[in-house]
Structures are given as C-alpha cells and as structure tokens.
C-alpha cells in the first residue's frame, strides 16, 4: 500500500538506490515527484534528469498530462491540474516544456515535449498536479448546462444565467416581478415569519416609508400573506 510522505514530497528515482526506512516515506522506481503540496497526493511536478531535480513548465499542461503523472507515481486513476498559489514556485532548472500527453502513457517521458532543458518559461509557470481516485464531475452532477469544477474533496457548479443552486437545479423567474397588488394591508408588527416554498410563485413588495423592496420566489423566501410582517405596508401577488 502506498503511503503519502509526511514531508509533503512524493518522489521516486529510476536508479532505486534510496534506502529510506522512515515509515511515512515510500519508494517507486521512476524519475518523478510531487513536492510542496498543501494536501497529500498533490504538489509541484519535478523530474530527475542529468543528476538533478528540475521543474516542468505548464505550457500545454492539462489533465491528460496530470493523469500520466499520477499513474506513474501510483497515486490514483485521475490527475487534475493545479496552479500557483496552491503550491510554491520551484527553483533551479526547468527540465521540460510543452509536454503534451494523450493521457494513455505510463511515464511522463513517453509524452511529446521539447528537448530536455529547452524552454521559454519562468518558475511562475511550474506545473502542478492533484491526484484522485475518483472524479466528482465524472457523473455530470451539474444540471441545466452547468459546468462542473473539481475541488480538493468535492465539486462546485458554475450555473447558466437563468439557473441557481448547488447543482444549478433551480430556475430563476423569467418574467419581472408584478407590482399590481391583489391584497393590501397595514400591519405594524414585530416579527417576520418566512416559509421556504421554492415552487410557489409570489411577489412581495414592502414600504418602510424610507425604502422599498421587490422580491420574488425562488430568488428569495416566500412570505405568506397572512403572517406577521415587520413593515407598514405590503402587497402579495399569488
């Protein structure tokens, strides 16, 4: 069983000459490591070449490249790109640039790239990877055309303009709120009783003599017409 390093560095060497016995460090035979990640199984990508460790530039870097890194290190089925400041920039040589994997390779050096040490990058462009055993977005949890974004241990959805909710499951009203009242009343009260009824189509307008507000479900919670309201004048259209 693989165990993440307690030193926030997951690394390996092809010569397999390491003889580390620390319980929280493990060894794989490859020339790759992840360093300075904020959580296990992620960090800046570094590769060993010509007797030294160096970074990989993020030009053309995508999830297919990240997946190959995770596969080579044995850290999960899927790889995701992460960017600074999720990890600090590196130092020293930039070993690879323009890495372009299909996602099917077993080793990063099997992917196309520029020749070793040939690059036009700075360390602000160092490539980073997060390895995962599952992808939350794989089952397309975001509804109504929403875009799914993987996070460290969850996902978020970017919703189209007319939808809201964690999974973009709520449709916003397309028509403007009505200002024509069907009920009117003056009620000096001290409390507000709110009932969350997302399928109710109602409009509330109130006037405190200083300001007014129009709110329509499901953008806001619904106030039932007969319940106490903390303002002087209200209209309910339902």
From TrEMBL:
Residues 173-194 are annotated as: Disordered. One of its GO terms (cellular component) is membrane. Disulfide bonds join 57-121, 70-131, 101-111, 159-168. CDD domains: EGF_CA. GO terms for molecular function: calcium ion binding. The lineage of its organism: Eukaryota, Metazoa, Echinodermata, Eleutherozoa, Echinozoa. Signal peptide: none annotated. The keyword Glycoprotein applies. Residues 133-169 form the EGF-like domain. Pfam families: hEGF, SRCR. Keywords: Disulfide bond, EGF-like domain, Glycoprotein, Repeat, Signal. InterPro entries: EGF, EGF-like_Ca-bd_dom, EGF-like_CS, SRCR, SRCR-like_dom_sf. The keyword Hydrolase does not apply. It comes from Holothuria leucospilota. Residues 32-132 form the SRCR domain. This is Neurotrypsin.
